[in-house]
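pinging the channel bc i need a second pair of eyes. not urgent but kinda urgent?? the chain im working w is below, pasted from the shared doc
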Amino acid sequence: MSGIAQFLSKYDLHTLKEWAQKGYAFIQKFDKKVSATFEVNKSIKTTCIKPSGTVSLLAGATPGIHFPESQYYIRRVRFMRSGPLYDALIKAGYKVEEDVYAKDNQAMVVEIPVSVGTNVRTVKEVTMWEQLELAAFLQENWADNQVSCTIQFDPETEGHMLMHALNYFQYRLKGISFLPRLKPNTHVYAQLPYEEITEELFNELSKGLRNIEMKPEKSEAAVDPKAENFCDGDKCLVDFGISAS
């Protein structure tokens, strides 16, 4: 499960609970069917909330359970100059520069201006306690595995409460991480993965950006666009006859 902060900007907590519980029930039904088909024990753990950095970014979703750092930010991604992305990003108008930490000039960094959407609260607007409550809420109503969550806290106003928070939530969470929140405009190092920006700068950086056009790589081997049905090597596709309804 991912994009939870964006979900809560459109729906209430009760709706999230209903969706999580219905989804969990369906997964258990599906797992029971699959396990019976292969004559194995049912799965002990079937659901989780992972950090989901890259996967969420590709879908334009906030990562996992975490609230965004800012409504507008620069996302920096590293890639190799020799890859197909380099020319495509340059032509699309994105700012691309050499990685200042690379030992050669082959590693590049692209800056991507991002908006998480309207009405999505940032992590600065959410207290340590609300973040903990949300993690415990989804641990109870969705995740079999440990909810992957890093709680950001204000060292000055919330730092002295960490011991009390751990004491209360030790019975509702399987594990948790804490990270002190940096003060605004505090840059730990150059080319940060995330950098908060204003709406005005976002609009300025977004101006002139075009769609990224990727040329298909040539291959001597013909590619069959049709997917293999049933068995392909050591893998088989099986229709278990279970619908989401």
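so Strands lie at 72-80, 95-98, 107-115, 150-153, 177-180, 194-196, 231-232, 235-236. and The longest strand covers residues 72-80. — does that match what u expected or am i reading it wrong
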